[in-house]
């Protein structure tokens, strides 16, 4: 039977390695529209063996319970954390969601859909204004027609982004670009 020598210094090394990774992860979550403290919470949940309550998260990270509540809500909306049930525990428990692909899709498709909606609305308004101006300012006809062509090109791009988002949401993307 093999015996293992317990060395506290190795535990500290493991903790340091995890903390380094969590730091890098948290500094890059701005790409997901999240702040660094939310990233630290995700990292803490990722390497925690057991689900945590808001109080435990707050104690673990030295942050307010309100801040933890806001961060955990962002993480659950992004499919990066989920609420779990445990017999005998009355408080909400949370754990990390390990499917980063799902998280990416949830976050970015939501942002892209919002951007597409805003851009399409602006496009409709611009087209209406250009057509109105065309009637009132015939001397600008050539310039307005060029702007309408550019607007049509932009609308084609919004349609393409919309199709791309649909492919992401449906999971079809993984037929072309499989998960690793």
What's the helix and strand layout?
Blueprint: H1 8-28, H2 36-47, H3 54-61, H4 65-77, E1 81-84, E2 93-96, H5 100-136, H6 141-170, H7 173-176
Antiparallel strand pairs: 1-2
Helix pairs in contact: 1-2, 2-4, 3-4, 5-6
InterPro entries: HTH-GbsR_regulator, MJ1563, WH-like_DNA-bd_sf, WH_DNA-bd_sf
GO molecular function: DNA binding
Keywords: DNA-binding, Transcription, Transcription regulation
Structural class: mainly alpha
Give the number of domains: 2
Largest sheet report: 2 strands, antiparallel
**CATH architecture field of the largest domain:** Orthogonal Bundle
- Helix and strand run: HHHHEEHHH
Please list the strands of the largest sheet in the order they lie side by side.
1-2
Distance between the termini: 37 Å
Provide the gyration radius in Å. Answer: 24 Å
Percent of residues in β-strands: under 5%
Reported by name, the CATH topology of the largest domain is Arc Repressor Mutant, subunit A
Percent range of helical residues: 55-70%
Shape: elongated
* Low-pLDDT runs: none
The CATH superfamily of the largest domain turns out to be Winged helix-like DNA-binding domain superfamily/Winged helix DNA-binding domain
GO molecular function: DNA binding
Keywords: DNA-binding, Transcription, Transcription regulation
Protein name: HTH-type transcriptional regulator
Organism: Shouchella lehensis
Keywords:
2 domains, 180 residues, WH_DNA-bd_sf, mainly alpha, elongated, two-stranded antiparallel ribbon, HTH-GbsR_regulator, transcription, DNA binding, transcription regulation, Arc Repressor Mutant, subunit A
């Amino acid at each position: 039977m093999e015996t293992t020598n317990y060395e506290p210094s190795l535990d500290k090394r493991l903790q340091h390695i995890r903390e380094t990774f969590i730091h890098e992860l948290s500094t890059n979550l701005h790409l997901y529209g999240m702040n660094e403290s939310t990233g630290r919470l995700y990292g803490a949940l990722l390497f925690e063996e057991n689900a945590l309550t808001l109080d435990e998260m707050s104690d673990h990270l030295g942050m307010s319970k309100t801040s933890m509540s806001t961060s955990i809500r962002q993480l659950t909306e992004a499919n990066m954390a989920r609420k779990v049930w445990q017999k005998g525990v009355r408080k909400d428990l949370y754990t990390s969601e390990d499917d980063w692909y799902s998280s990416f899709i949830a976050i970015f498709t939501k942002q892209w859909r919002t951007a597409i909606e805003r851009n399409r609305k602006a496009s409709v308004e611009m087209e209406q204004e250009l057509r109105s101006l065309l009637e009132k300012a015939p001397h600008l006809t050539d310039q307005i027609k060029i702007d309408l062509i550019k607007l049509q090109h932009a609308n084609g791009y919004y349609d393409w982004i919309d199709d791309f988002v649909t492919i992401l949401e449906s999971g079809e993307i993984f037929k072309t670009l499989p998960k690793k």
